[in-house]
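Our preliminary data section would be incomplete without showing what the modeling component actually yields. Below, a chain of 204 amino acids is followed by its predicted structure, encoded as tokens that our downstream tools consume directly.
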Amino acid sequence: MTVFVSVTMSLDGFVAPGSLGELMGRQWQELQQWVFPQRFFRENLHLGEGGEEGRDDEILRETYERTGASVMGKRMFDAGERMWPEEAPFHTPVFVVTHERREPWERPGGTTFHFVNDGVEAALNRAREAAGDRDVRIAGGGATIVEHLNAGLVDELAIALSPVLFGAGVRLFEGVDASRIALEQTRVEHSARVTHLSYAVRRR
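Predicted structure:
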């Protein structure tokens, strides 16, 4: 089983706007513009037939198919709870790292959000158990990704580098302990909209 991060990042290093109210807004949509035209994205959100096929579409599908469970932070969940459709796009268990005590939230289509109150390692352990023979994705946001990186819990890092500039917001590597982490590049692919970068994560 592999624990991996798959995230879209702006050219200047941001993964989300700084304000919770702007999450899923115009700036975020510009960041994710490579995703929306893809056939798999349209299928997964039941937006109708059609859509682009190609390497971007294949990467989205491969990421979804390898994921047996996800871990995310409370900030990402709060934004998604307002914006996701009733049938949330994960279709697997999702473990939310939070201080909030809340019963599991089951959505149509196979997504159940579980709220974990004792840290990222506990959330990841539960995700590993739930994932079966598939992998665990650390979905975000930036602080949750960095917490897993610093704890040595991530095996692979995949970044879709989007040709937009944020100027401010949530930096992907804010607070990362670079003295403990080494990256080995394993893939570089590009399309008209985005550049896909993949790394194996090692202990320095």
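The chain has a mean pLDDT of 93. The longest strand covers residues 181-190. Preliminary results of this kind motivate Aim 1 of the renewal.
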